[in-house]
Amino acid sequence: RKEVEQDPGPFNVPEGATVAFNCTYSNSASQSFFWYRQDCRKEPKLLMSVYSSGNEDGRFTAQLNRASQYISLLIRDSKLSDSATYLCVVSRGGGGNKLTFGTGTQLKVEL
Amino acid sequence: SQTIHQWPATLVQPVGSPLSLECTVEGTSNPNLYWYRQAAGRGLQLLFYSVGIGQISSEVPQNLSASRPQDRQFILSSKKLLLSDSGFYLCAWSDPRLAVSYEQYFGPGTRLTVT
Lengths: 111, 115
Description:
The complex is a heterodimer.
Chain A (H helix, E strand, L loop, with lengths): L3 E3 L4 E4 L4 E7 L7 E6 L5 E7 L4 E3 L2 E6 L4 E6 L8 E8 L7 E3 L3 E6 L1
Chain B lengths: L2 E5 L2 E4 L5 E8 L5 E7 L5 E9 L2 E4 L5 E7 L2 E6 L8 E8 L10 E2 L3 E5 L1
Parallel strand pairs in B: 2-11
Antiparallel strand pairs in B: 1-3, 3-8, 4-5, 4-9, 5-6, 7-8, 9-10, 9-11
């Protein structure tokens, strides 16, 4: 089983739609969780951290279910500029504050 | 504010040639530093990380090596490149002193093609 699993997509949605991405992780000891965004041929950029209580940043809402080892990202009112690959990321054990990255879910927002 | 630089942006090298990629961070001290590789259509693979000058941990055995000669400088090297070394190489940093110490910030990357 992969440490972090995501549906690769692509998710093709019209502008203004609401879209949700899901992610599962295998390491029950993981303590920190993130969503990163990666544009084509660019570096990943931190989108938001994910907290047990859930958190919202504008049109983006992230949820964490530790019992099910499940993370979600909801994007409301999709914009063309939201088109990118969204990476689910969890912390790893051992030193160095290491992260494990999922392979990403591709989102294409269309007119 | 902190910034991270990588160079070169793109590189085309023949099989068997040496490699040296450099990463520097500005605006912080004693960062954790990381080298990742992203092969075409694949996820990020952690290659090396460093928690201090001269301290290098390798994640995946391969023909690459890393060095940290200065606090904010991280170098990825190879003596002889293989075709399988092609990919997008990303350097990242995090601040181990912060409560959000797991947050990592990436440089713009180097796209390496081995021919």
